[in-house]
Amino acid sequence: MQIYYRKIQSLTLIAALFSLVACESNPSHRPPIGGAIGLVNTDEKGLCFLPKFETAYLTSTKKYDDLKFINLSYVDVVLGNDPLSNKKIWQASPNSQKYYKLEEGESICMNDDLLGLKKSEYANLTNDKYTVVIGGMDDKERYRLRFIERFEYPIQTK
Question: Mean of the pLDDT values across residues 48-56?
Answer without folding.
Answer: 97
